[in-house]
Amino acid sequence: MSKYPHHIALLGAGTIGLSMLAMHLRRPDTRVTVFDPRPDAEDQLRAQLPSFLDSSQYTSSNSNPTSSLHDLSSDTLIDTLISTNRLRLASSIHETIQNATIIQEQTPELLSSKQALWAEVTRSANINAHLWSSSSGIPASAQAATCTADVQARLLIAHPFNPPHIMPLIEVVPSPNTAPDRVTFVQEYFKAIPGPRAGQSYSITSQTPSTSASASSQHYRPVTLQKEIPGFVGNRLAFALLREACYLVGEGVVSARDLDAIVTSSLGPRWAGSGVFESYHAGGGEGGIGAFLEKLAPTVKDVWGQLGQPVILTEEEREIMSRDDSEGRDQEKWRETVVKQTEEAYGVGISAETRAKKVKMLNGVLEMQKECFGEL
To answer: Does 253 lie in the same domain as 203?
Structure first.
């Protein structure tokens, strides 16, 4: 049996792809081959991947068992992964997928491009390879519509929540044609990936955790949807909140900064421990969510009837309206307000220091969940 029974072919190495690469590398029985057609892809990998690996605390079998990969320089870290056959950088799709047991794509969200990619991939891929798409909204049935029945049976969505090397959610969305055993495999694969838990270490070259690693509760939480729907569930919920947030700020009800304060001071902490239904189930007292819906029905009905529906235009639509000097641009007045207030509150870009603090906070919240609830 191969030292690395799981050989991942990763197609696309943008920020999400590199975060997923770090996640896959946490499994000591996995090696990854990466391909991205951008000319600066390797430079980006060497620049960004080490920071994603830091939160995983790997160790090299050739180093002191207590030293972690983030004690190495960035280039040494990547070179070590390459020299020990945990990581390979390929120059073509064909080279990437050779002998891969799992092929995962995170390419741009264009249906025609994904259909063309799967057509190219399946011409030379292992006939038993698992086919995963990280799409954030394009269903597997649409991606595989032009493929053979065998390909349709192996293709499914494995959609991570950003950033994948930290966030536990994996939305598994099979098509009606996906074989059940393929769904079971992806569930078990992600459940076995260790999380970014402080104090743990994993060997680059060994198939087993290093002796300094302690047992941990399950980190990744694959959730399988019962049917396909555009955008799946995580993004639909997030976009619903974003829509109302943009409406409220655009209408002058609240500032962008204060709206964020409302979320982080109420919904955010609560939802970290209880989901939507569990929260309102508790809010209903002895009668649970049924009593809550009964008591609050007039208020809920009033609010639901007034939820905003701001219009959002694509770049192409905005260009057309700009050329035509169309009054339709007025439909999107909220955009300028939201962008201006958000940039005034947080700056045009996020500093490295702020980003590091947010990562630390996310890890802290997730560790608290594990401490309070055990295996979720």
So the answer is: no
